[in-house]
UniProtKB/TrEMBL annotation:
Gene Ontology terms for molecular function: arginase activity; manganese ion binding
Binding residue positions for Mn(2+) 2: D232, D234
Organism: Sphaerotilus montanus
Name of this chain's protein: Arginase
E.C. number(s) listed in UniProt: 3.5.3.1
Record field: catalytic activity: L-arginine + H2O = urea + L-ornithine
Reported cofactor(s): Mn(2+)
InterPro entries hit by this protein: Arginase, Ureohydrolase, Ureohydrolase_dom_sf, Ureohydrolase_Mn_BS
């Protein structure tokens, strides 16, 4: 099952790198547009509206304060993201949040969770990433908030971030499935274990295969489940996707990533999407953006053959 011709997809650009460890992810939304995201989705029969970019505070590029870098700026960008994503969901649209760094998952997913509470729907979040992003101010080695969004969504973080959307925690760790993980800080490992996050790391994928990992990650979805995908481009192996600020060797290959996206599309449940951490400053002739658009197409039903 794939999205129908009546599906309205809303692109929401959020051009900030205030939560990141390197400058440049703020240029990600435009790189995805240059790579033809809107046109490629429209070719699949989707109605696409580009809402443009949100306007928020600049990146001050300052050191951490009390374990957080740029907390005020990150909080404002996430508040803006929350409201924009929630408005599109309330209108019956499928929002694609174009980041920007992965701190923005706080605003986006808290909006999705709010929408699910209002609609009485269950939520499943697939977190495609090289990193667990489950740090807190006390265990972070850097203070960069793009390493904290999952923890904040689960209620572990400052009020400025955990209370976005008005419900603490925004989500339970039980709704998340993390896929492709291969870089977790030492204190973060213990915290992930304590909170019992369901993680399909690269060792699991090496041993069991992407198909088996995705079958488990997608298990028990039903008509009352809203499926959200948070796609950090550093999920991909840097050999095929160099345009990110935090490359980690040993990620999914092109074919593994395609299988991941196609199996998500096969569920017919995709209802919202983040695409984050694309950094054109580290890319080669927009190669990573073009790959990301290719994979997003697969999320919306592109396949080699018509599947039964």
């Amino acid at each position: 099952m794939v999205q129908t011709r009546k599906t309205v997809v809303s692109l929401i650009g959020v051009p900030t790198d205030a939560g990141a460890s390197a400058r440049g992810a703020s240029m990600g939304p435009e790189a995805l547009r240059v790579a033809g995201l809107r046109e490629r989705l429209e070719a699949h029969g989707l109605s696409v509206r580009d809402t443009g970019n949100l306007a928020g505070p600049p990146n001050p590029w300052q050191p951490p304060v009390d374990g957080y870098r740029h907390l005020a700026e990150v909080a404002e960008w996430n508040r803006l993201t929350h409201e924009a994503v929630h408005a599109e969901l309330a209108a019956g649209h499928l929002p694609i949040m174009l980041g920007g760094d992965h701190c923005l998952g706080i605003g986006s997913i808290s909006a999705v969770a709010r929408h699910c509470r209002e609609q009485g729907r269950k939520l499943r979040v697939l977190w495609l990433d090289a990193h667990a992003d489950f740090n807190t101010s006390t265990i972070t080695p850097s203070g960069n908030i793009h390493g904290m969004p999952v923890a904040c969504l689960c209620g572990f973080g400052p009020d400025e971030l955990t209370r976005i959307g008005g419900h603490v925690p925004a989500i339970s760790p039980k709704v998340i499935r993390q896929i492709g993980i291969r870089s977790v800080d030492e204190g973060e490992k213990r915290f992930v274990h304590q909170q019992d996050l369901e993680v399909f790391d690269m060792r699991y994928i090496d041993e069991m295969g992407m198909r088996h990992a995705m079958e488990l990650a997608l298990a028990t979805l039903d008509d009352h489940t809203h499926l959200h995908v948070s796609f950090d481009v550093d999920f991909l192996d840097p050999d095929i996707a160099p345009g990110v600020g935090t490359t980690v060797p040993g990620g999914p290959t092109y074919r593994e990533a395609q299988l991941c996206m196609e199996m998500i599309a096969d569920t017919g449940r995709l209802a919202s999407l983040d695409v984050v951490e694309l950094n054109p400053a580290f890319d080669h002739r927009n190669r990573t953006a073009e790959l990301a658009v290719d994979l997003i197409e697969s999320l919306f039903g592109k396949s080699t053959l018509m599947r039964k």
